[in-house]
Design a protein that fits this description.
Blueprint (H helix, E strand, L loop, with lengths): L6 E2 L16 H10 L4 E4 L2 E4 L11 E2 L2 H20 L4 E9 L4 H12 L5 E5 L2 E3 L6 E3 L12 H21 L4 E2 L17 H14 L3 E4 L1 H6 L6 H9 L4 E4 L12 H10 L11
Parallel strand pairs: 1-2, 2-5, 3-4, 3-5, 5-6, 6-9, 10-11
Antiparallel strand pairs: 7-8
Helix pairs in contact: 2-3, 4-5
The structure holds zinc ion (ZN) (2 copies).
Length: 276
Amino acid sequence: MTDVQKYSYHTHNNALGVFDGKSSAEEMISKAEELGFEAIGVSNHLCVHPNMPRGVSKMFFSDPEKALDIYKRMYAELDEVAASHKIKVYKGFEVDFFPSAVWRGWFEKIIKQLDYDYLIGASHFIRSADETFLCNIYHLDRLPSATTDEQMREYLRGYWDNVKGAVESGYFDFMAHLDYCTLFELSSTPEWDDVKWDLIETMASRRQAFEINTGGIAKIGRPFPEWRICDELVKREVPVIVSCDSHDVSQIGRHFAEVEDYLAEKGCKHRFKLSE
Ligand SMILES: [Zn+2]
Ligand SMILES: [Zn+2]
């Protein structure tokens, strides 16, 4: 019986009525403590972009000042909750990366003013090459009905460019759910294999840590990324962390034991962990 990872750095809450968790910070932290976790990291979404879709989600910001104000208040609230608990609470973000200079400028300015412990790199958007059009993969119903297959391929390339760009940026402690778009069967076909191989090699050469996101096991019976990508990254000794991506208390540590068995079977020795 292998020891199961007793921390999760990928969790969300409903802070300020803005973020998309279902449970409060207090509920999430208490639950992690109850489960005997040694640490919990809070990684609410950082979604800021000049062309962020409007009126879709309270946590999408097209004004960096507004975003920063919310993030500061969210962290202040979190500090207060953490102070009344024994468990180690880390402050992070799950950051939607975009390659443009404008996005980088905004991001760097925001993050400099926040007292964070770690950053997770992520992509939840498909987009046009020039970033004038963004669409969250959960809001595909907002895609214009006239979207052609060729446009769709461009948008999907945008998704994978975000992921690779995030790795190459060096901003992130680990990468979230690399192939998250496959949740909606986007780029699940073999024509996207070259893009995935290229990403695997980029991550290996940079030793960019990645997560095995167990939310996928709950949703579609396999994690993000899919097992064959996990195999390749583990084989290349890329550091790995298991993430539950919990949006409510019932999801904390979900399927950790089975992923731990998988990692033991693969002889994985390189794990990602924050040091205090
Ligand atoms: Zn995510
Ligand atoms: Zn998440």
